[in-house]
Amino acid sequence: MVTRRKFLKILGGGVILAATGITGFVTTRTPEKALAPWQPGEYTDPRKAALSYAVLAPNPHNRQPWLIELIEDDKVRIHRDPDRDLPETDPFHRQLFIGLGAFIETMVLAAGAQGSSVDLSLLPGGDDGPVAEATFSAGGRSDPLALQILKRHSNKQPYTAQKLSQAQIAVLGEFATLYVAEDEVARIREMTIRAFEIEMMTPRTLKESVDLMRIGKAEINRNPDGIELRDPLLEAFRLTGLLTEELLLDTSHSANKAQLKGYYHMLEATPHYAVLTSATNTRSDQLHTGRRLMRLYLKTTEMGIGLHPVSQALQEYAEMEKEYTLAHRLLAPQGHTVQMLVRLGFGSNPIATPRWPLETRIMNDV
Ligand SMILES: Cc1cc2nc3c(=O)[nH]c(=O)nc-3n(C[C@H](O)[C@H](O)[C@H](O)COP(=O)(O)O)c2cc1C
User: Fold this and answer.
1) Which of 195, 229, 321, 330 is surrounded by the most beta carbons within 10 Å?
2) How many C-beta neighbours within 10 Å does residue 15 have?
3) For the residues of 182-251, what is the DSSP string, one character each?
4) Distance between CA atoms of 366 and 362, rounded to whole angstroms?
5) Over the stretch 131-164, which tens digit does the pLDDT of each residue have?
């Protein structure tokens, strides 16, 4: 029997991280219901068949900011769900629009693979209306990248020291700007660590993350979005009432310090970065960046390379200004906007993250 005192001692000692090794328990704690969308069902409606893949797109803080309107029997209108904003870390919704762009690209790729062609109109009513309108018809071209949609996951592990080969750099160079020189990589790495620390030490941005944490199987299955923490020991602490919001917000607590140390270690273990920029920073640029990001993710998945966005230095709030300026000086000296900064490298296999089922994102099922 573990006493409350002993629990607190474990919590204080930062042993939490080690608990990920309890594999037997982890298996039983897998939130299967939240992961079910990764096995899309059979749909007779080609729009739903493609959209059931689109909901698997990467998106900031896994907010899944899309809402789908089905129109007549061949059209789809995609909206941004204003209830899924990130006001502190994404005040201008730039990152949410990138996620919506990734959703659109996934829909188009899946439709092509399923024999449908999509006539796409982005921002049909301007910036304040729907994000996109798509008309489906028979035909379509299958892109090999579509084969990777169900295998694609962000890889948030520490990467090994293995570097990309020259051939891999050449291939990925078609999809993004790569940073491979050791001195440049070191400068970016240090910036990502400082920027992450700022996000954690700024109470309102930390709270935005804490509010989105789903800890343990039941919480994740109930709310299959946000930041999922599957660690069974954290779940045990949560269930016994020890892991409170107050504790998660206390950055001086030794358990949080240990978690942060683990995160810094992961950020350190990064051999390369890739960057997506745009000359201007319109909604259309952001959607286009999301489409490019999805293709980069799928290409790296095909090549067995890990990809992990590290967005903190690109976020538009006062406390981040210094790192934001540095990020732009380092990564877009010609005055462009840095839309995405991602780690690239080799790590252990990433896991699938939760998704709301397609049906819950359709506004008007017909
Ligand atoms: C615009 C954008 C910004 C992101 N920024 C971060 C980030 O700063 N840190 C991070 O760990 N993941 C980041 N991600 C990855 C998301 O957390 C991830 O896509 C989401 O949790 C779903 O997981 P999946 O990609 O494995 O399906 C970002 C994704 C997008 C599209």
Assistant:
1) 195
2) 13
3) HHHHHHHHHHHHHHHHHHHHSHHHHHHHHHTEEESHHHHHHS-SSEEE--HHHHHHHHTT-S-HHHHH-T
4) 9
5) 999 999 999 889 999 999 999 999 999 999 999 9
Instruction: Name the residue of 311, 317, 338, 351 whose CB sits within 8 Å of the most ligand 1 atoms, as the mutation to test its pocket.
Output: 311
Q: Do residues 197 and 288 both lie within one domain?
A: yes
Would you state the structure tokens that stand for residue 43, as one six-digit string? 């749909």
Q: Residue 295's domain is classified under what CATH number?
A: 3.40.109
The verdict on 145 and 162 lying in the same domain is no
Write down the mean pLDDT value for the chain.
92
Greater pLDDT, 242 or 102: 102
Query: Exposure string (b/e) for 58-73, b if CB count within 10 Å is 16 or more?
Result: bbbbbbbbbbbebeee
CA of 130 relative to ligand 1 center, distance in Å? 23
> Dihedral sign, CA of 100, 101, 102, 103?
positive
Per residue in 167-193, pLDDT tens? Answer: 999 999 999 999 999 999 999 999 999
Which range marks the domain in which residue 265 is found? 4-22+154-345
Residue 44 and residue 172 in one domain: no
Q: 134 and 261 in one domain?
A: no
116 strand-pairing partners: 138
Alpha-carbon distance of 59 to 66, in angstroms, equals: 10
Which of residues 93 and 243 earns the better pLDDT score? 93
Ligand 1 center from residue 6 Cα (angstroms): 35
Q: Which residue has the tokens 């892991």?
A: 243
How many residues are recorded in the chain?
366
Mutate to test the pocket of ligand 1, among 38, 53, 62 (most ligand atoms within 8 A of CB): 62
Ligand 1 atom at shortest distance from the alpha carbon of 94: 1
- Residue 207 and residue 92 share a domain: no
Both tokens assigned to 276:
């997506």
Instruction: Give the pLDDT band (50/70/90) at residue 109.
Output: very high
Helix (H, G, I), strand (E, B) or coil at 9: helix
User: 196-205, 231-240, 256-265: which has the highest mean pLDDT?
Assistant: 196-205
Phi/psi for 328 (5° steps) reads -75, -35
Q: What tokens does 137 get?
A: 């018809």
Cβ atoms of 171 and 162 closer than 8 Å: no
